[in-house]
Specification:
Structural class: alpha+beta
Number of helices: 12
CATH superfamily: Outer membrane efflux proteins (OEP)
Keywords: Cell outer membrane, Membrane, Transmembrane, Transmembrane beta strand, Transport
Helix content: 55-70%
Pfam family, one: OEP
Oligomer: single chain
Protein name: Outer membrane protein
Strand content: 5-15%
Radius of gyration: 40 Å
CATH topology: Outer membrane efflux proteins (OEP)
Organism: Prevotella dentalis (strain ATCC 49559 / DSM 3688 / JCM 13448 / NCTC 12043 / ES 2772)
Distance between the termini: 63 Å
Family: Belongs to the outer membrane factor (OMF) (TC 1.B.17) family.
Shape: elongated
Largest sheet: 4 strands, antiparallel
């Protein structure tokens, strides 16, 4: 009894030491081969790989390149349109002789050439508005690419945390199985000495079998979590992926005790940086220009044109050589022209409907912007709340793990002395195992929420190479 109280007096001052030992266990007990540092995949490395190789991001990069091309084409729309045309025509039967302007029955060949340019003098500002809209579309494509990259980073971080959590659970379950096997061997020895009964041995064998099953189950869960991470990263399924499990203890005590700005301050500072809000704002501007372009289509269109034209004519019914040569006719028939065209839409219900639809889309885009801003505010508030909550829960769970470790140790001593049943010992072991797993979960979730809060404070989720 004196030894027990001596242990209690020594144990409680060393609570921080036991917490440090438990953290070191998480780093060393995960069963993996010894690999070079370069082959270990950290959270940042996984995020960078996913951003570079993600299918949706690669698709958006193609869209971004197309938006740059669209801007160049919109600039060219401001220049005159130049076209060249040639026509060849055979005529036979009754027709009009272009030389005498009389009907006859002959076979002729006509060859027309035309080169002209057309410039819109007034189109209601459609070309200018189209150029501005193309620039907005380019900016939105770039912003959407950034938004997809941030969303991909958050998803990969969540999958990474799940994979590391499952891997560490395998280590914890393996440790519990080893403890149960050692206790089973001791129980068998005590049974041989007559201090334990046969039911105690059978009960311990049942506990070992249950721990063995739990280990197998956790290994399957870990493999599924790793597969989900590979799928999110677009990483080859057959290739190995060795994860860095030190993320469970990555946060220092200084970072845990640091004060976080309130959700309102974070929102006011991050709103201008948010890709989602920026994309929604650009969508509103694009919808407005779509409406302005549709309105401009209802205005008159004034354009000027100029060009050169010539032709070649030959009467195939006459003897060869009677017609003027091609070069002479081409030069003699060469003419220039200039024209001015004014088109006024008087009754165009299709254009009216398009303008009304464009205005409706503009109003919907503005409502979508309000929704995105509200969603961002809620996400920031939830991230800060979760971060603070997990921080408090983790500290409380650390104390619970220390208490459960002490309780389990005392139960083992009482079991060896025959003062505790096998069932009570198993209950204490399960309580300690659940506390360790919940502490691990709190640590990893705190890492994830801290990353989100840092992101809302302006820190990028990933850095490009």
């Amino acid at each position: 009894m004196l030894q027990r109280y001596s242990f209690l007096a020594w144990h409680w001052p060393c609570k921080s030491c036991m917490n440090r030992i438990f953290q070191l266990f998480l780093l060393s007990a995960v069963h993996m081969p010894v690999v070079a540092q370069s082959s270990v995949w950290t959270m940042e490395r996984c995020v960078g790989y996913a951003v570079e190789h993600g299918i949706d991001l690669r698709r958006q990069r193609v869209e971004t390149e197309q938006s740059h091309y669209d801007v160049r084409m919109a600039r060219l729309e401001l220049l005159p349109t130049i076209a060249a045309e040639t026509t060849g025509q055979y005529s036979w039967g009754r027709n009009i002789d272009p030389e005498t302007n009389t009907y006859n029955t002959i076979t002729t060949f006509n060859n027309y050439y035309n080169v002209g340019a057309v410039l819109n003098l007034f189109d209601g500002g459609q070309a200018i508005k189209a150029l501005r809209r193309a620039r907005l579309a380019r900016a939105q494509a770039e912003t959407t690419l950034q938004k997809l990259a941030d969303d991909k980073a958050i998803n990969v971080m969540a999958r990474f945390v799940e994979a590391v959590y499952s891997r560490c659970c395998v280590a914890l379950t393996s440790r519990k199985l080893a403890d149960s096997q050692a206790l089973l061997a001791k129980t068998r020895r005590l049974f041989e000495l007559g201090e334990k009964s046969r039911p105690d041995v059978v009960q311990m064998e049942s506990h070992v079998a249950d721990d063995d099953y739990q280990l197998l189950h956790q290994q399957n869960v870990a493999r599924q979590a790793l597969l989900a991470l590979k799928a999110e990263m677009n990483y080859p399924t057959a290739d190995s992926l060795c994860l860095d499990t030190t993320v469970a203890t990555a946060l220092s005590s200084a970072s845990l005790s640091s004060t976080i700005a309130g959700a309102e301050r974070l929102y006011s500072s991050f709103e201008s940086l948010s890709p989602a809000v920026r994309a929604a704002q650009l969508s509103v501007e694009q919808s407005r220009y779509d409406w302005l372009i549709c309105r401009a289509q209802q205005l008159p269109l004034l354009k000027v044109g100029a060009g050169l034209s010539t032709n070649y004519y030959r009467n195939l019914s006459q003897e060869s050589g009677s017609a003027n040569p091609f070069g002479r006719q081409f030069h003699n028939n060469l003419g220039e022209y200039v024209y001015l065209s004014l088109s006024i839409p008087i009754f165009a219900p299709g254009r009216w409907r398009s303008a009304r639809r464009a205005k409706t889309d503009w109003m919907k885009a503005r409502l979508n912007l309000v929704e995105v801003q509200r969603q961002l505010h809620d996400d920031i508030a939830k991230a800060v709340m979760d971060r603070d909550g997990y921080c408090r829960e983790m500290r409380q769970m650390e104390r619970k793990v220390v208490a459960d470790s002490l309780a389990h140790y005392l139960c083992c001593r009482k079991y060896e002395e025959g003062m505790l049943s096998t069932f009570d010992l198993h209950t204490a072991a399960q309580t300690l195992q659940e506390s360790r797993i919940r502490l691990l979960q709190m640590q990893l979730m705190l890492v994830l929420k801290q990353k989100l809060v840092n992101y809302y404070q302006g820190e990028p989720l990933w850095t490009s190479k």
